[in-house]
Amino acid sequence: MSSNVRPENMERITTPELANAFIEEQVAEIRSQVGDKKVLLALSGGVDSSVVAALLIKAIGKQLVCVHVNHGLMRKNESENVIEVFRNQLDANLVYIDATDRFLDLLAGVFEPERKRKIIGKEFIEVFAEEARKLEGVEFLAQGTIYPDILESIKAAEGKKAVKSHHNVGGLPEDLSFELVEPIKLLFKDEVRVVGEALGLPHTMVYRQPFPGPGLGVRCLGAITRDRLAALREADAILREEFALNGLAEKVWQYFVIIPDMKSVGVKDDSRYEGWPAIIRAVNTKDAMTATIEEIPYEVLHKVTNRIITEVEGINRVLYDLTPKPTGTIEWE
Ligand code: XMP
């Protein structure tokens, strides 16, 4: 699949049968492209890189080397899940790198959103490249590029202005030149999900809500501190748990917690309790260019609020963001 243009007559993959046919075709194509060489993949645990990993594992098994970089800005249990699914269940060749301290040390005191994004993106490539240099016999780099990414880069090449610099795996340093393997580059997201399920990936992984490359880094507003990041991670986990329990997990496109760098005065156990507010955001969108607010039942909001203020150290208020996009972007940074 070398062309970057989706043929007009390409059938939309909507059923397990169509997915299986696609998988078979790709497995053969990957085998003929890479032969007995090794392939490297940055596995974030997101839908696209997970589906590419599962496809390559099926095609070439341990010739695929997955590298999972934990930048310390993952959601609760996310890296653990990647290890469980890929190393323990799919027997993948997985290199796990906990780079939390490197990222958080570099980000200490940095409050400007675009600088934070640049640092995270650059360091990610740095850590990944260091790992790639240690491996021998790797000639290919697999990427979870999907068709909207290709359409997006065509738009960028036409000079349309970006609101934020979105970072995933960008260009690698020049000494590392690999041939690309991009087996899902002509697929739309819904098709990627059908293929992921046909490959046997867990439903929660295949239907995972979008999560930005810089992770919780753009939700822990301003200069990131470890204590505020820990509070954010716990509050976000509670929100996700309650949405799942209340049937909202797949109804709402994206939902998460943001924690600003400010405190307000509160009271706890009859004493003054200064804490951060947790801000809940829950939006629906088709293409992330505009977004509307999902109406969350009050009982759910109350339950989430009560759990966050009682279970999470350092948070004394919970707020609900009612702003559509525009004017608010989906993320706060
Ligand atoms: P905004 O905040 O621009 O976000 O309205 C639109 C969608 O993009 C996601 N997002 C990112 N995704 N890398 C990504 O892969 C990034 O750096 C990034 N920043 C924002 C955001 O979560 C939303 O779904």
Structure write-up:
By secondary structure, the protein is an alpha/beta fold. It has two domains: about 15-205, HUPs (Rossmann fold); about 220-320, 2-Layer Sandwich (GMP Synthetase, Chain A, domain 3), CATH 3.30.300.10. It is about 40% helix and about 15% strand. The chain has a five-stranded parallel beta sheet, sandwiched between helices. Strands 6, 9, 10 and 11 form a four-stranded mixed beta sheet that branches. Strands 7-8 form a two-stranded antiparallel sheet. The relative contact order is 0.13. The chain binds xanthosine-5'-monophosphate (XMP). Xanthosine-5'-monophosphate (XMP) binds near residues 166, 167, 212 and 254.
Features:
333 residues, alpha/beta, GMP Synthetase, Chain A, domain 3, 2 domains, 5-stranded parallel β-sheet, 4-stranded mixed β-sheet, 16% strand, binds xanthosine-5'-monophosphate
Helices and strands, with pairings:
Layout: H1 16-34, E1 38-42, H2 47-60, E2 64-70, H3 78-89, E3 93-98, H4 100-107, H5 113-134, E4 138-142, H6 147-157, E5 179-181, H7 189-198, H8 203-206, H9 226-245, E6 254-258, E7 267-268, E8 271-272, E9 276-284, E10 292-293, H10 298-311, E11 315-320
Parallel strand pairs: 1-2, 1-4, 2-3, 4-5, 9-11
Antiparallel strand pairs: 6-9, 7-8, 9-10
Helix pairs in contact: 1-2, 1-7, 2-7, 4-5, 9-10
The chain binds xanthosine-5'-monophosphate (XMP).
Residues 163-164, 166-168, 210, 212-214, 254, 288, 325, 329-331 line the site of xanthosine-5'-monophosphate (XMP).
